Amino acid sequence: MGEHGARVRGDEGGTKSLFKCSEAREPGGTAERGGLSAILITALCSLLILSSPAGLGVRAAEFGHLPDNITVSEGESVILRCKIDNEVTHKAWLNRSNILFTGTDKWTLDPRVSLVNSNDSDFSIQIERVAVADEGPYTCSFQARNQPRTAHVYLIVQVPARIVNISADVTVNEGSNVNLFCLAVGRPEPTVTWKDFKFDLQSEGEFLDITEIKRHQAEDFECITHNGVAAPDSRRVRVTVNYPPTITDVKNMPAQLGKVAILRCEAMAVPTASFEWYRDDRRRVESDSTLQIKNERTRSLLLFNNVTEKHFGNYTCFASNSLGTANASMLLFRPGAVYSRGVGAAVSAGLGVWLCLLLSLLMKI
């Protein structure tokens, strides 16, 4: 009986053990058949090596070098090289339990796997468009000088970090809680960071929670994921904060008869406020030939093209949106005149001067 053998020696619990892979050649078997069987047996032995228990040491000297790692990004191509010599008689490439090539004969049906070199010194294969499923151990098994040999390589497939799910743009009322999420995948595991542009703050992790959000916190928040394989991936979420109007710019305005005058009412609000004007007797102000109302995004202008006596008085601006209303009153006055404003009195610049003089005299008495 002829025999092609591959031995793995190791110690387990201090006791020597010997594993033997062999092929019994039938009488009349050909040398060619025996050679092919030998290389397949060697390939199976290499799988035994890879799957041996952790407690069993393997003498790498008998089966070539220890496993090397090759790292490649998903979608790229990779060449797995096996250095041999001119005394090699049989050779094969395996991936786990799958035989890819025996010599120049292709066993795998995967069209991405091809033979690059098969000569006296190099037995190499190429995998195109590498996928995550290609990751794992690859074994080059060959027979030289009637001795089986194996070389191992572990293919590591990296995947660039990519955001796969993220919160949609959100609109909330002031004082609400906001919860944003950003889910990313990649190999190795990517990091996820939330970035706040307005205040240049950062928060690590997939989730960003904002408690009782304020109007000044309304902005775009950026999620950035990175794992060092490729450029970071990033996406933004816009957070809009609704709040009721606040009137910020109110001034009494002096005006001359026959001249142009403007009353301004500016209000900050989200959604944008709508404006209305009323006179001191609560009559709604309408545009006419001498008066024009001009509403802009955040303010309303009362334009007097030709000031007449009837235009002097108290005007009230109302700003409103779905969350509330704000109002403020202002005077269009002729310098030196005094006008009642319902609650208290609005005093012209000239009256202010007289009051200052009167107080000064009282202090001297």
Helices and strands, with pairings:
Blueprint: E1 6-12, E2 15-21, H1 31-51, E3 68-73, E4 78-80, E5 88-95, E6 98-102, E7 105-106, E8 113-118, E9 123-127, E10 136-144, E11 147-166, E12 170-173, E13 178-187, E14 191-196, E15 201-204, E16 207-210, E17 219-226, E18 233-249, E19 253-254, E20 261-270, E21 274-279, E22 291-295, E23 299-304, E24 313-321, E25 324-333, E26 339-340, E27 345-346, H2 349-364
Parallel strand pairs: 3-11, 12-18, 19-25
Antiparallel strand pairs: 1-2, 4-9, 5-6, 5-10, 6-7, 8-9, 10-11, 11-13, 13-16, 14-15, 14-17, 17-18, 18-20, 20-23, 21-24, 22-23, 24-25, 26-27
Measured distance between first and last alpha carbons = 139 Å
At the fourth level of CATH, the homologous superfamily of the largest domain is Immunoglobulins
Residue-averaged pLDDT: 78
Number of domains: 3
Provide the succession of SSEs.
EEHEEEEEEEEEEEEEEEEEEEEEEEEEH
Q: Can you tell me the overall shape? A: rod-shaped
> Which ranges are low-confidence, i.e. pLDDT below 50, for 5 or more consecutive residues?
1-66, 341-362
Structural category is mainly beta
Oligomer: single chain
The CATH topology of the largest domain is what? Answer: Immunoglobulin-like
State the major sheet.
8 strands, mixed
Please bin the fraction of helical residues: 10-25%
Strand residues, percent: over 45%
Report the count of strand segments: 27
- Return the CATH architecture of the largest domain: Sandwich
What is the gyration radius calculated from CA atoms? Answer: 43 Å
Top-tier CATH class of the largest domain: Mainly Beta
Number of helices: 2
